[in-house]
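Re: [ENG-882] Designed sequences occasionally contain unexpected residues at chain ends

Forwarding the minimal case from QA. Structure tokens:
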């Protein structure tokens, strides 16, 4: 009789296990297999409009949700000082009135590529120590190429390519209207992915390497951060960033800590933030790449703090874990009971 009761209890909990699994499946789905809950994605979808002008590209990204709208504006321009990305963020955006105010503005510019000999062998360009060999200014670009493709039936991936006239430097720029995986990287709608490609640089020295001079501009000084928001939320790893902020809003420029150099993943070292040489009120960093014929790196640029929870969290998993523990516990009781009866 006792054995029957135990078996019934076991079957009852086993049924709960499958019920819990089914319940979790109902609450969380991932039809596009990007690791992000579909309902969470729907809550953060954005509408992206792109306007291509003669000397710049303007991107407007607005949260689709009826309440809590916000607006992200990107402006990409090829200036004499380099390839520039200006970002403006407007919370509490009202599309029917002019009362909305921009709360955060910042800018990142890829200014030039520096070939140098690393005199102190620290892997980082320091103009007061290392020997500069050559400089390629990033101020002469071909007309940008713009294409679109579908992510889903109602969302779009926007892809822009900027390439220098000599084909040495290319910026592959991606804007998404929903979470999407691009080149093995999960990109969120509140950021842009900027893949940097340096191809066939004309090295003038047989033992030199390259540094990408990157200017940082904001009303508030930038700071370094070892862990990015994408890492904290669990859908990125091995990233670092600089960030600036206004009130509770954070603008960031982040990058993978490794780049692909001639098909091999190698470490990317970044200099400390310093005052800019040309504009002392601004700041600069150098992204430093090991020597190679083809260099491919993966920075991102955007606004942090717009997600209220992790998009990779799966509702129902905690309940499922408890049920599994319960099953294991009951299994132990059954085993002990049988063992006592056999003594």
């Amino acid at each position: 009789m006792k054995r029957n009761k135990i078996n019934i209890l076991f079957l009852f909990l086993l049924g709960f296990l499958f019920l819990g699994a089914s319940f979790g499946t109902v609450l969380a789905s991932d039809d596009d297999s990007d690791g992000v809950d579909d309902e969470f994605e729907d809550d953060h979808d954005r509408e992206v409009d792109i306007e291509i002008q003669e000397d710049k590209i303007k991107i407007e990204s607005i949260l689709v949700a009826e309440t809590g709208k916000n607006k992200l504006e990107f402006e990409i321009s090829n200036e004499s000082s380099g390839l520039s990305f200006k970002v403006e963020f407007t919370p509490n955006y009202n599309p029917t009135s002019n009362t909305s105010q921009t709360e955060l503005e910042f800018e990142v510019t890829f200014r030039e590529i520096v070939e140098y000999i690393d005199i102190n062998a620290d892997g980082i360009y320091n103009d007061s120590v290392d020997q500069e060999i050559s400089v390629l200014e990033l101020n002469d670009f071909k007309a940008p190429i713009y294409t679109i493709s579908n992510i889903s039936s109602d969302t779009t991936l926007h892809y822009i390519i900027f390439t220098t006239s000599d084909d040495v430097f290319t910026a592959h720029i991606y804007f998404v209207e929903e979470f999407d995986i691009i080149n093995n990287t999960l990109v969120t709608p509140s950021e842009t992915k900027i893949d940097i490609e340096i191809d066939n640089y004309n090295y003038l020295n047989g033992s030199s390497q390259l540094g990408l001079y990157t200017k940082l501009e904001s009303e508030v000084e930038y700071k370094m951060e070892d862990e990015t928001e994408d890492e904290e939320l669990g859908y990125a790893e091995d990233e670092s960033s600089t960030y600036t902020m206004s009130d509770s809003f954070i603008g960031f420029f982040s990058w993978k800590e490794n780049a692909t150099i001639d098909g091999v993943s190698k470490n990317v070292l970044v200099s400390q933030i310093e005052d800019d040489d040309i504009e002392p009120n601004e700041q600069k960093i150098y992204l430093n790449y090991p020597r190679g014929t083809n260099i491919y790196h993966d920075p991102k640029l955007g606004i942090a703090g717009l997600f209220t929870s992790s998009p990779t969290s799966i509702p129902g998993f905690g309940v499922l874990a408890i049920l599994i523990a319960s099953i294991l516990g009951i299994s132990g009781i059954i085993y002990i009971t049988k063992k006592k009866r056999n003594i």
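QA comment: On inspection the terminal residues look reasonable. The first helix runs from residue 2 to 27. Proposing we downgrade this to a documentation issue.
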